[in-house]
Specification:
There is one protein chain. The protein is an alpha+beta fold. Helix content is about 35%, strand content about 30%. The strands form 2 sheets. Strands 1, 2, 3, 4, 5, 6, 7, 8, 13 and 14 form a 10-stranded mixed β-sheet that branches. The protein is globular and about 70 Å long. The two termini are about 25 Å apart.
Length: about 400
């Protein structure tokens, strides 16, 4: 396929190629180009960068279903997104394509070179339209809807008279400020709450020496990560079997991704220590101009002092300290702790995009009516207002 250059320039055609790659057999040249794309993407996404996605597919894609969709323009890598074919959508037998994900992937926005957002979606949708095996629609998990990548998709679908439905929208805490940490804390958190947290910090200090330590220290990264895994497993996540160390695949993914990020200078770890013992720990991935707060853990025998909250307060200066514009909490909507400390919000959604041809628009329309009916039933049963997050364009 080709894309026309702007009308003010000479008529030069750029050659685009959409290629699906097996992620277990990537050569060094491609991985290097992938790294460069991740560093300059119009929307940073550490979960689709090679240092995270390669080990995620290796350890979490046990059925080996994931493929890497890549867009190359004039030989330059301009887009990457993992895809997988699915037979079921929830409980419904409904074949479709979706961005491949795993439980520890907190953002599904593809990596796209600035200026190529429309070309990326145009090439992907045109390719899927021609393939009967692609199923009925493209489903995208965890797409940020307040950035240029989604805006290009929505605009393209509107122009093509193609349904683009937001089927579940959420907002989560985000840190985005030019204020210093203490000034931001004073602005966001009410005085009464600040006074209470100061009291808890003073009570904790009565028990011993408190230190906020950034980095893994002399003991090294492996020791720090092992300490974090043990601390996380000692709490409620360990009791319900959801700690990273509870499953081999998440344990190995965590170690592989953090080591790769550390090697590239993109790992940020910090801990609150009481007489040398870690009572709260935090793992962040940096992806300038942004960052991602990946995991946190705290010692439940000190829960009455809120050490996790105190550590997050001391970490409010991370943007200034590391030259970042924002930090994504990667937390659930309405998270009681981080929502009270970070005032900004990031909007993410699940998006379903109809494919054309083979009678798929009509089938997708019927499916969407059924899905909307179920959404209204769930809202009525819960006493909530009817969902109003669907924005759709009619298909041909």
């Amino acid at each position: 396929m080709t894309m026309g250059a702007p009308s003010t320039a000479p008529a030069v055609l750029a050659t685009s190629r959409l290629v699906m790659l097996d992620p277990v057999s990537l050569d060094d040249t491609f991985v290097a180009a992938w790294h460069r794309l991740a560093e300059c993407a119009s929307e940073p996404n550490v979960f689709h960068a090679p240092e995270f996605l390669v080990p995620a597919i290796k350890h979490c894609d046990t059925l080996r279903r994931a493929r890497l969709l890549t867009l190359q323009v004039d030989g330059q890598l301009c887009g990457v997104m993992p895809l997988a074919g699915e037979h079921y959508y929830g409980r419904w037998l409904l074949p479709h394509i979706q961005n491949w994900r795993h439980p520890n992937c907190f953002l599904g926005t593809p990596l796209v070179r600035p200026g190529h957002e429309t070309a990326f979606w145009q090439a992907l949708l045109a390719d899927l339209d021609c393939k009967l095996g692609a199923g009925v629609f493209l489903h995208l998990h965890g797409i940020a809807t307040d950035g240029p990548v989604y805006a290009a998709l929505a605009q393209l679908c509107a122009g093509q008279n193609r349904t683009c439905a937001i089927v579940m929208a959420q907002e989560r805490a985000m840190l985005s400020t030019q204020l210093a940490g203490p000034a931001y804390y004073e602005q966001v958190v009410r005085k009464k709450k600040r006074k209470e947290l100061a009291r808890l910090r003073n009570r904790l200090a009565e028990l011993g020496t408190i230190e906020i330590v950034e980095g893994c220290g002399a003991a090294g990264l492996d020791a720090w990560l092992g300490e974090f895994l043990a601390l996380e497993r000692s709490g409620w996540k360990g009791r319900n079997g959801s700690a990273l160390a509870d499953m081999r695949e998440t344990h190995d993914l965590f170690l592989s991704a953090t080591h790769a990020a550390h090697q590239s200078g993109r790992l940020h770890v910090t801990a609150m220590r009481l007489d040398g013992r870690a009572i709260a720990m935090l793992v962040n991935f940096l992806s300038p101009p942004g960052g991602f707060s990946f995991k946190t853990a705290f010692a439940e025998d000190y829960a009455r002092f809120s050490p996790g909250v105190l550590l997050q307060i001391d970490n409010l200066g991370i943007l200034r300290d590391h030259g970042l514009d924002w930090m994504d909490s990667c937390a659930a909507e309405g998270h009681p702790m981080i929502d009270s400390l970070w005032a900004e919000r990031r909007h993410v959604a699940r998006v379903s995009v109809a494919l054309k041809g083979y009678g798929r628009p009509a089938l997708f329309g019927l499916f969407r009516k059924g899905e909307q009916f179920m959404e209204r039933r769930r809202a009525a049963a819960a006493g909530d207002p009817p969902p109003s997050h669907c924005v759709e364009n009619d298909d041909d």
